[in-house]
Description:
Elements: E1 4-8, E2 11-15, E3 18-25, E4 31-35, E5 41-45, E6 50-59, E7 68-73, E8 76-81, E9 118-125, E10 130-134, E11 141-144, E12 150-153, E13 159-164, E14 167-171, E15 177-181, E16 189-193, E17 198-202, E18 208-214, E19 219-221, E20 226-228, E21 237-238, E22 243-244, E23 250-254, E24 259-265, E25 270-274
Amino acid sequence: MKYVIICMLWTCVTYGQKYFEKSYAASEIEHVVIDNFRGNINVVRSSSNQIKIIADLESIVNDKTLKLKEHKDGNLVYLYIENPCKQKLGKFDPQNPFNYSRSVNNCDWNGDELSFPQLSYTVEIPDGVNIYAATVMDSKINIADVTGNVYASNVNGPVEMKNVSNVLNGTTVNGDIDIYYNDMPGTDAQFSTINGEINLYVSPDASIKTRFKSYMGELYTDLDAVQMLNKQNKSGKLEAGEMLKIDEYSEAKIGSGEISMTIETFNGNAYLKKSK
């Protein structure tokens, strides 16, 4: 690995160095929350019974750089950037994991919003451990081969998941969302982007009920004869290869519709495709 060392008068910073590295026994931890601000998050399946988290320091903005904090609460480990606008930690909710510690509205940052370090995370997750990953500034979230529940939230950047089944959430504002299910979706999910496309790859035999809405985009599928539950076209079906514009929530069913997916875009299309 290459390091870049910057020295300014009394201090030196080495970019590319490990800023944080720690392992946890999977028998003790069920939920891992990575609450980043600047920097990519890469999550992969671990072949051991250890959760391993590494954060590499890529850059800092100024000499007031905020610090990474670790919080453990029972079977939860939570990593976040401490800042003066963070609320006190509350009760953890897996459906809304980042409400656990949100920033106070109308808070006086005193310039600290410019002091977030750029941290690139690599997280190794054993089977059965749930991962919740969030980042904000020009960053990517990539998750692969994880068997536990997955929750990913971005703002300026894409979200990609491969070989997953238990996806709770995949959202961003500016970026694409690409989800490659390994077989049948295992849990209800929500997907949304404002400026980007949503690509969901599922088994042709998947049993899904979708709620779709877009202002400027359309819904496309190459699955066979998706049934529109509140008819948006004359046939009441979305045939393979057909595009459909829906500006209010419309429900479609594939198979018996056991798993619910909410899909929402503003400027981009959504694609529901057969897995490759």
